[in-house]
Design goal:
The protein has eleven helices and no strands. The chain is an all-alpha fold. Keywords: Membrane, Transmembrane, Transmembrane helix.
């Protein structure tokens, strides 16, 4: 019997490689003027991941014969674990989403817009890049959203959303922070009160918060709902948006808020749904719904700044 952790680790590395390939291709062809620190680190990280993937493919082959069958006790232990067991930030996809440093000038003298003026990217290009990846992530979520709702709750999306749209979790961004529900436009008066540096900081923080929740959603899909691959793709779509906002902050010399960690989602909240799939499914829906709403908000915010610049 093969060890499922072997296949899981291999698949995770494949997903990482796919993410980096998409990121590299996007930056090479769309961001030909991207600052040198991004190109240098992407090239190094790409080489490392290719080597790791090649080694993983070799190590993967003996897994069925080298691994002893898991006992039922061990299987129960694995199934009762959660991402919280990894600690506050270990292997967190939302921290350093580009696989690079966090923009501390002491880490790289080439960081920031002032370090290399000739290679600085125009503000509207930075914002358009964020919008493009946010729309891509939005499309990925929409492709399986309705099917997920129908399969999980046996009701269509519109009815389900209307039933639960006013219920929100306190540890996710509040209505004061993102003053809209899914499918609504961000109020103009809210947009008019925003400044770009803070909008970048807050958007990054909000999306990091959703990433914590989505990690738990992916974990919940281990039981085989049929949507595990979709939610894994959602995680990496979100990571791409985070990477672009992170790059924009560094390009403009904006310091990010402190990284969000798994601690914002308490262990009690993670475990409250054990043995009750209905509670767990609703919890996961609220996270997924608010993530999609967050993408809409990010698009509204940065489209506002682009339109403001040309008006």
């Amino acid at each position: 019997m093969s060890d499922p952790t072997c296949t899981s680790s291999y698949d995770d590395m494949v997903a990482e490689l796919v993410f980096l390939n998409n990121f590299t291709t996007f930056n090479v062809h769309q961001h030909h003027r991207r600052s040198r620190w991004i190109r240098k680190r992407v090239a190094k990280l790409w080489d490392v991941l290719v080597i790791i993937l090649c080694l993983a493919s070799i190590v993967r082959l003996p897994c069925p014969t080298m691994s002893a069958p898991m006992s039922s006790e061990h299987q129960r232990h694995v199934r009762s674990s959660s991402p919280a067991d990894l600690g506050p930030s270990k292997d967190a996809k939302w921290i350093k989403p580009c696989g690079m440093n966090n923009g501390d000038p002491e880490d790289d003298s080439s960081l920031g817009a002032d370090a290399d003026p000739e290679m600085a990217i125009a503000e509207n290009e930075l914002l358009n890049n964020i919008i493009l990846l946010a729309r891509t992530a939005q499309g990925q979520a929409h492709r399986f959203r309705d099917g997920y709702v129908k399969s999980t709750f046996n009701v269509d999306f519109v009815q389900h959303h209307e039933t639960w749209k006013d219920l929100h979790y306190s540890w996710l961004p509040s209505m004061e922070q993102i003053p809209k529900n899914l499918g609504e436009s961000t109020p103009v008066n809210h947009l008019q009160n925003l400044e770009l540096p803070k909008a970048l900081q807050d958007s990054y923080k909000f999306l990091q918060t959703f990433a914590v929740g989505l990690e738990q959603v992916v974990w919940d899909q281990e039981d085989g709902s049929g949507f595990k691959a979709d939610f894994q793709a959602t995680e990496y779509s979100l990571r791409s948006v985070l990477c672009e906002i992170h790059a924009a902050m560094i390009e403009r010399g904006v310091k990010q808020h402190a990284d969000i960690t798994r601690d914002i989602m308490s262990r009690e909240f993670r475990n409250m749904s054990k043995g009750n799939s209905s509670v767990r499914n609703l919890r996961d829906w609220f996270i997924f719904r608010d993530y999609m709403n967050g993408l809409e908000y990010v698009i509204d915010v940065f489209e506002y700044f682009i339109n403001k610049a040309v008006s």
